[in-house]
Amino acid sequence: MSQTLLNWLILGSGFLHDLFICTYVGGAVAMEFILNPAQQTIPPAQAQIMGEKTSDRFLILAWASLLVILLTGIARLYGKGLIGFDPLTTSLNLESSYGRTIFSMLSIWLILVINGALITFLFRPKLKGKLTAGTNQSQANEDRNAKIRAANWIQNLTRLDMILAILAVLLGASLTQGGIA
Amino acid sequence: MMSAAHILAWSIYVGGAITMELVLRHAQQFMRPSQVAIVCQAAGRSYRWWSLVALSVLMATGIPMALRQPHAFDASSTFGLLLWVLCGVWLLQVTILALLAVRVHPDMHARMAAGLTEEEIGRERQRVAVAIRRMDRLLRLELAGCIVAVLLGAALHQLAYG
């Protein structure tokens, strides 16, 4: 690959990497500290609609961000000559601080993906589930309790994701000094 | 620590702008107009403070970080030139934030006094509509500025660290 093309690859992947990290981290912070409090200023029925629509849209953004972050992260490592065309053949190792920091970031990415999958495929469907006709009182109570539990799980996982994403940003920032882990 | 604070401030500022545009605006389409106004007011108020803190941190950490580089503010070098452009974008973002806080938001959320005539009510509504359009344009300009700033940041990072 020519040097000019490599420079453009590094610049393009760096730009997209930064942009989607901003989207994920800043989005998580905005959801928690701006939209959630704003949602509490309106009546519960409208707040529920707002919560549903904002969460649906943010989940799409979060999944897109996680995918782009991984792809551009690999491209950046390739651009720096730390990995070859086959990402599994790498000169990164756990003996250097740089390598440990990269592996820590990759582990955080994996946890974020697992948490995202739990929210998207397990807890959100439970929260959205509707009662069928002919449901008795005890079933309705059980359903309501399950929804409350799912909502609590989503809230806790979202907060954990936000903290982990901020930690990943700090680790990423340390790479300019050779890593911190 | 300084570069970590800098990146975190960028993340919060840019991510916040993207979320307001792509998430909140999308949700508004499904809500009653009266509730949209309340949510916008509450979200706008806290977003303003987060943005102000983020922009302050960006300047406070960005200048010392830039001064560590050779030819930091030398406009004859590529690095220096890009840095000056980034400073211009920062200034634009601060101006937009000030306009939103001082001019546009107060215009949008001003309450109508009791006893207005039909004509005066019409004029007030038109003024609010103009303020909403102005806010939309400013928010999009702010988002475009954020994206340009991230691109400039990536270019500066590449020039500084390879």
How are the secondary structure elements laid out?
The complex is a heterodimer of chains A (181) and B (162).
Chain A: H1 3-39, H2 44-79, H3 97-128, H4 137-174
Helix pairs in contact in A: 1-2, 1-4, 2-3, 3-4
Chain B: H1 2-28, H2 33-67, H3 78-109, H4 118-161
Helix pairs in contact in B: 1-2, 1-4, 2-3, 3-4
What does this structure look like?
The complex is a heterodimer of chains A (181) and B (162). Chain A is an all-alpha fold. Chain A has one domain (3-177). Chain A has 4 helices and no strands. Chain A has helices at residues 3-39, 44-79, 97-128, 137-174. In chain A, helix 1 runs antiparallel to helix 2 and helix 1 (3-39) crosses helix 4 (137-174). Chain A is elongated. With 162 residues, chain B is an all-alpha fold. Chain B has one domain. Chain B has 4 helices and no strands. In chain B, helix 1 (2-28) packs antiparallel against helix 4, helix 2 packs antiparallel against helix 3 (78-109) and helix 3 packs antiparallel against helix 4. The two termini of chain B are 20 Å apart. The interface between A and B is large, with 45 and 44 residues.
Q: Treating each run of at least 4 consecutive H or I residues as one helix, how many helices of chain B?
A: 4
| Largest inter-chain contact set | A-B, 45 and 44 residues
Count every beta strand of chain B, where a strand is a DSSP E run of 2 or more residues. Answer: 0
**Strand content range of chain A:** under 5%
What share of residues of chain A is helical?
over 70%
Kindly give the count of domains of chain B: 1
Low-confidence residue ranges of chain B: none
Sheet of most strands of chain B: none
Classify the secondary structure makeup of chain B into a structural class. mainly alpha
Report the β-strand fraction of chain B as a percent range.
under 5%
- The string of secondary-structure elements of chain A, in order, is HHHH
Overall average residue pLDDT of chain B? 85
| Tally of individual helices of chain A | 4
Please report the total strand number of chain A as a whole number.
0
Estimate the global geometry of chain A from the Cα principal axes.
Answer: elongated
Order of helices and strands of chain B: HHHH
Distance between the termini of chain B: 20 Å
